[in-house]
Structure formats: structure tokens, C-alpha cells
Amino acid sequence: MSFLTPLYVLGALAIVAPIVFHLIRRTTKVETPFGSLMFLEPSPPRVSKRSRLEHWPLLLLRAAALAILAAAFARPFLRESAALDLAAAPGERVVVLVDTSASLRRGELWPGAVAAALAEVNARSHRDELAVLAFDDASRPILTFAEWSALDEAGRRARAKARIETLAPSWRSTRLGQALIDAAGAIEEAGDAARDEARAPRRIVLVSDLQRGSRLDALGDFDWPSDLTLDVRPLRAKGSNAAVERVVDADEVGRADGLRVRVSNDADADRDAFTLAWEGDPKTPPTPATVPPGESRVVRIPTPAGDRTALRLSGDAHDFDDVLYVATEPERPSTVLFVGPDRSDDPEGLLYYLARACEGMPGRAVTVERREPGSPLAVAADRPPALVVLAVDPPSAEAPALAEYARRGGTVLAVPAAGRTEALAAIAGVAPFDVAEAEQQGDAMLGEIAFDHPLFAAVAAPQFNDFTKIRFRRHRKLPAGALGEARIVARFEGGDPAIVEKRVGRGRLIVMTSGWGPADGRLARSSKFVPLIAAMLDGPEAAGPVGPTRVGDPIPLPDGATLVRKPDGSTAAVDPGATAFAQADEPGVYVVESPAGERRIAVNLDPAEGRTEPMGVDALERAGCRLTQSDVKTSASPDRKRQLQAAELEGRQKLWRPLILAALGVLVVETWLAGRLDRARPVRAEAA
């Protein structure tokens, strides 16, 4: 028999207590019975001391009760009742989680990560189970528990090492929280081979640089298993880092006179002077930037000459995130056909602001052509305009040509006046309807905007989507359901539609119930007007990324896209009907070829990867992980395994229960015997 907590056996020393009490027992010398004590003076009795043991059965019962209780608290178990052979005991179940995000490209971090993972493979015994997962913005299995168990000891080690050595850091971000959840799930899914044996110790070994840009938000809703520990192998790089990213706000959208970039410096940096320069442009002097440690600064950089696409930051110790890519689109000639009485030099008309919005539009050379109301539009089928603007309802004879233009993929923008609209209804394929002036008290604002629509995609980010400064003095009201199946993209505060889109074939009809001129409001003078017109010029079938594109993000493809040229010079064919390209696995400029021409898209590193200062393992503990020191492998210790097996045996046998019952039985007998001896004690009287 063995004891799980043998120190409690020392409690048996309490047997000495009843022996001592039996030895020092005192008895009165004379006992004389009296009928009444009222005439006697109270005085202490005269006693005699006895130093010999009496009532041996009672003493033995009391000693036995104490000994049994001490044995019960020591939690005894029988080793011969269960196999405690260490060789047959279950081994440890381990997942090695290897960080392959972009920040591992710094210095000697990656060789250190591979060495740490290989060391964990070498530490495994033949009883252990091992799985290997790699992660960046998503986790992927490198070696599963099933593969490990299917091989012999030499084969499993060789395969694990070979697969780890084939890994390389990617250009993607770090989603550490989700990776830990996936690793815990892999251990849970593996399960125990035999439920009646001791549960195998379970551990996740994390090999990572733990940079502050790692995302842990997924752990917020995860209940970490109580018997799963996390062993962190942190990697550290020498030197500090600085990062560069593009800054785009509402005033930047549509501007071509330069770009603003943010330079961020590590909190533990030992330098604060940096330079920014376009690669391949030696004639332009570098732009200096002074950034104190732990802070960031925004710098405006002139637009590069020619087709320069890479802006390089110099001055820090690590260059993995020092290049910012910018897509310089070749100018696409576009034509806007304006139908209305406005003159181009009339600041009260729509044409005046439309022409100025199209001037200097990035990536486009826009020509605005004016047509008098009633004149033939002459929409050429081989070279159609990018946008047709109807400031008045055109003659009904022009409606078929405009409808055909829309069906082939064109965009018609109508700003109807109050009155009967026949041509507009014909383009939409509905019955003619009347447009009325809306009753409006004071200025109105947009109360509901569909930011998921391409018209507002460029200003959908939280820092851009404030429309409260745009007021409308008046607007028109459309009859309910006048355009049939159409989508209301924006509404006024009162609920009236402000912008309505009606799909016509491959194209679209856009109706604005309030214009952008001073008579209707202040839309033309806001920073939202140019992005809105640019979205209309792109057409309904155009596809482009909304906001900055990061490595790993899908790149939307235009209709009919055939080929994508990657930054490394390789090409990827596009499947017919594909709407997105999912192989943007490195930073750089991607070129999408389609019947509409080439489209350039800049893909950059996630700025969070540039936050390379270590966050500390305490952040993982605060997120709910149960940590263990990586240099103390208690789970792999034979003594620890024996202790766990002993606890399992004791927990199954529960010998303390019958011992407690036996102690209670002994105490019952002791109580009965003590009472009987007390009643049987003789009364002796001595004459005074």
C-alpha cells in the first residue's frame, strides 16, 4: 500500500494523547453518599494520582480510531491493483504552433523559430503524440496527430523535421488568438485512446516573436480548457523597427498632387531620423522624417514621376516593412456627355461643378462634352461615353438610344426636374410618371446611406463617412415604386429617396432627386462629390478594392478579366466568371488584364506587422490562457508522470471512504464501552 499524501500519516502520533490521559487520570480517595448536602460546607475533594493504565480495551479503541483517521487523510492506494508500469503509461499530447507571419523575416528570428520547433520534436518520447501547426492570418496543419501515430518512432521524427524545415515566413499578418483556438481544437479532436486510463497531459508549444501587432481578440469568447497549458518560446530580434503606411482621409480622395504617409517608430528605438524616397528615382531628393521613439508622424510625399510605385523608408534596423507600394494607373481617356442648358462657366449650374470634379482625376483623362436639350445625342457604340448626365428630360426619340447604351454597360445619371418624365421612364422600362417638388422646411441631410454600395465605397471607412456637413435646400419626390425594381442607395432624413439605382441590362440608371448645384445644396462643395462622380465613371461592372488592400485580401476582378500579373513577374490565369483573385500572397503592384484594359492594384503589408515591440506573455494570460514556463518541462518528467498516475489510481480506488466508515464504527464501539464501564464502576464508602 502507498499513500498519495504521506505526511498525513504523522497524524497517527496523536495516539499518544489517550495513553497520557489514561496515565494521569485522577480519582477521589473517599466517596460517602449523603441524603442531603444542605448542612455541609463545600470543599475541594481529596484525590489520588494513579500512574498505571486501566481499561485497555477502551485505550486500544481510541488509538485505533486515531490511526485509521490518519491513514484515511493520507489517501492510501494499492499499487498492485493497477498497472503502474511507466512504459505503458500514456504519453504527452503536444501541438507545436509555429508563427510564420511577416514579422518573422526580421534578423535571425526565422532560424531561431525552426530550431525551437525541431528541439520540441527531438524531445518527444515514443509514448508522446505530436502535431505541428503553422499560422499567420490563418492556421494550417503541417503534421497531424493521425500522421504521427501511423509512423514508427524514427519515421515520425524524420517526417516532422522535414516538414518544419520546408516552412518559410509569409507576408501575412498575425492572428495569434485564432491560431491558439485552432491548436486547442486539434488537441480536443484527437481525444484519448482509452477513456479508462489516465488522461494524457496536454500542452501547446507556441514558437513566436509575440510582436505587439498580433491579434488576440478571438480569445475573448473562448473558454480555455482547464487541463491544457500553453508553453511559450518567445523569439527576440536585435535592433528597433520603423514602419510606413499610407494615410487617406476625406480630403485625400481624388487628389493627385501627392500622398500622405505615416511613419511609426518603436517605443524602444534608439534612433529617430528617417528618410523616404521613391525607388528608381535618383533625381528626386529623399524626404526626411523625424519620429521620436514610440510615436508616429505624417509626411506628405510628392507624386512620383513616371511609373514609380515603391516608396522606401530608410534608417531602421529591419527592412521587411520599409516599402510602401502605390498603384500608378495609366491615364484612361473617358468622356462624360452632359445634356442640359447649363454653361460651363456658370457657377450656378451643374455643368460648372461637374467639369471641375473631372479635372485632374487620378488615373483618368476625362473630357466633358455638352449637348443642348433637344439635340441628337449620337452615342457611339464603339466608343461609348463613360457617363451620360441628364440635367433635363431628353426628347422621347433619344430614349431608345440611351436605353441601349445602358443595356450594353453604360451609366445614365438623371437629375430630374419637377414635371412629367417620359424619356426617363422609357430608359428605366416603366410607365411615365410625375416628379413633384418635395415639401421641405429648412435644410435637409442624408439620413440613410448604403455604404456597401459601390457609389459610396470610397468613403465608407469610419474616418470618411461623415455626411452631416452636406445640406440640401430642396429636392424632388418620386412616386413610390415609380422605377420598379430599384435600389434606394441614399435617403433624406424624412425618408424620401435621394439616390436611386435601377439596373438596365449590364448597365444602370442612377436618379438623384437633388442636384449638386448651389440652388439645391452643398454637395458639389464637399469632399464627397469627387469620389461619387469617380464611382459613376467606373461603371456598374467595374471592380476595385475598397480601401487599402493587404496581403491575403481578395482582389476584386472586373468583368471579363483574363490574367493577373504578380509583382514577382509570374502570371496567373483567371477562371471564367471569377469575381476575385485570392493569390495576393506578397506585397507589390498587381496588374489585372481585362477587355476594359489594365488595372493596377497596390497590395501592401498589414501595418500591424510593423508593431514589432514584444507584448509579453502576460498578455496571453490576461486573455485566458493557462501558461507554463517553457524551461520547466514538468509534463515530460517521469516523477511527474508517476505522481499523476498515483493520483488517478487513488481517485479510482477511494480507499479513504471505507477507512472513514471504519473509524466511525470504532468510535461507536468506544462510546458504548466507555458508557458501560462508567455505569459499572463501584461506589466505595469509608467511615469518617
Q: Which strand-content bin applies to the residues? A: 15-25%
**Integer-rounded radius of gyration:** 42 Å
Order of strands across the main sheet: 18-17-19-20-27-26-25-23
Report the CATH superfamily of the largest domain.
Answer: Class I glutamine amidotransferase (GATase) domain
The total strand number stands at 35
CATH architecture of the largest domain: 3-Layer(aba) Sandwich
How far apart are the termini? 61 Å
Please tell me about this protein's structure.
- With 688 residues, this protein is α/β, with parallel strands linked by helices.
- It has five domains: 2-78 and 655-680, no CATH class; 92-237 and 615-630, 3-Layer(aba) Sandwich (Rossmann fold), CATH 3.40.50; 242-326; 332-538, Rossmann fold (3-Layer(aba) Sandwich); 549-604, no CATH class.
- 22% of the residues lie in helices and 24% in strands.
- It has an eight-stranded mixed sheet with strand order 18-17-19-20-27-26-25-23, sandwiched between helices.
- A hairpin with an 8-residue loop joins strand 15 (310-314) and strand 16 (323-325).
- The longest helix is centred in the last third of the chain and has 25 residues, at 656-680.
- The chain is elongated, with a radius of gyration of 42 Å.
Per-chain topology:
Elements: E1 2-3, H1 16-23, E2 26-28, E3 47-49, H2 56-73, E4 76-77, E5 93-99, H3 109-122, E6 129-135, E7 139-143, H4 145-150, H5 153-165, H6 176-190, E8 202-208, E9 228-234, E10 242-247, E11 259-265, E12 273-278, E13 287-290, E14 296-301, E15 310-314, E16 323-325, E17 332-339, H7 350-358, E18 364-371, E19 387-390, H8 399-407, E20 411-414, E21 419-421, H9 423-428, E22 433-437, E23 446-449, E24 476-477, E25 487-492, E26 497-504, E27 507-512, H10 529-538, E28 549-550, E29 555-556, E30 563-565, E31 571-573, E32 580-581, E33 588-594, E34 597-604, H11 618-622, E35 627-628, H12 638-653, H13 656-680
Helix pairs in contact: 2-13, 3-5
